[in-house]
Amino acid sequence: AQSVTQLGSHVSVSEGALVLLRCNYSSSVPPYLFWYVQYPNQGLQLLLKYTTGATLVKGINGFEAEFKKSETSFHLTKPSAHMSDAAEYFCAVSSTGTASKLTFGTGTRLQVTL
Amino acid sequence: EPEVTQTPSHQVTQMGQEVILRCVPISNHLYFYWYRQILGQKVEFLVSFYNNEISEKSEIFDDQFSVERPDGSNFTLKIRSTKLEDSAMYFCASRELPGELFFGEGSRLTVL
After folding, report:
1. Which of residues 3-62 of B touch A (CB under 8 A)?
2. pLDDT tens digits, one per residue of B39-86
3. Are A45 and A63 in contact (CB under 8 A)?
4. Please, which residues have CB within 8 angstroms of residue A1's CB and are 6 or more apart in sequence?
5. Would you call B85 helix, strand, or coil by DSSP?
6. A window 34-93, beta carbon within 8 A of B
7. Cβ contact (<8 Å) for B33 and A101?
8. Residue by residue, what is the 3-state secondary structure of A39-94?
């Protein structure tokens, strides 16, 4: 069984400040990890993913995340927030099996203030 | 760029009515999924489909739900007799290989 915990349902940062959205996972097998972003009234867009290889992965819009196996974490960061980053962010995990489904966290709503 | 398309974008129905949500996955993808998101809640897995059969389903996916790939391109979710609590955004997704899912824009279902 797999699960994802996102600490903080709401995060507010000032424009230009560091964004840090936390994600911890639980998986009995090596995981694939993902961050998706959802803008209001829109679908889910992949920000970045970790499958194998380099543990620091870079995604779109300046976001990156680091897979830390020892901490079972996959936190999302961005050095400088922009107003357009305001959205809901979902961390998700899947197994490496061929028919594996994604299990999502409860989401973190990011607010960016002036 | 290939994308998953879903219709309708929004459907309003009366409780007890049948609803069919349609999806056209990316053409070379082999694995298909339906997820739902009740307003303000997390995205929940409903069902996965591979090789013309259900490979996994969640507790949510009870006898009121069914999926079908009728013609090799469409992937449909049918809710036989809708309930108020079925009101949600329904997302279709597909993938080729283990890993990233590509999601559609969603179909918002409102049950009155």
Report:
1. 31, 33, 35, 41-45, 48, 50, 55-56
2. 888 899 999 999 899 999 999 999 999 999 988 789 999 999 999 999
3. no
4. A26, A28
5. helix
6. 34, 36, 42-46, 49, 51, 90, 92
7. yes
8. CCCCCEEEEEEECCCCCEEECHHHCEEEEEHHHCEEEEEECCCCHHHCEEEEEEEE
